[in-house]
Amino acid sequence: MPLLCISLLALLLLPPSLSCNSTKSAGEIIKDYDGIVQVDLNNTRRDITTLLQNSRTACRTQDYHLPNCMAQGINLVSTLSTLTCKMRHLGLPLTDRLTEFVLYSICCSCREKPTKEPKVKLKKRTATGQRRNEQRRIKKENRKLCRANAMLSNMTECYQILKAQSPET
Fold it and tell me: What does UniProt give as the signal peptide span (predicted)?
């Protein structure tokens, strides 16, 4: 029974500890968005779309279980922070600059992902195995690009809602 109580307590306390408590006003965030973030958001989206088109990959319109800004009572800054941190953890160099700008503009930071120890495998390499691994790597990279594209759409939506709600614009 005590183990169950501890587990439930951890689940209740976990979401608030992961949220961003930014003290920046919506007007200041929108000013940063209009100045820097919007341009970088559009450039990143264009670059990702180009890469996906070049690889002839069509992203499925599947639900990536990403935070949404359309729900009632959502803290938009916290949602932006969550989306940005998820994007940062994808490990795509294309999105590094954007994630830094967004996190700086909303005055939040991401928890670092714990590093894993590398697994050492002794395996005979064959040409077929190398081709298969390359295909897997490309497929995984394309899935990450599709996920990043969905995150960019959600981030744009959050900024637009924030801009509409901001009295200073």
Answer: 1-19
What does the block give as tokens for 70? 């359309």
C-alpha distances in angstroms, 12 versus 5, 7, 64, 72? 11, 9, 23, 20
Each residue's pLDDT tens digit, 81-132: 999 999 999 999 999 999 999 999 999 999 876 666 666 666 666 666 677 7
Sign of the dihedral defined by the CA atoms of residues 66, 69, 71, 74, in that order: positive
Tokens 């070049």 map to which residue?
54
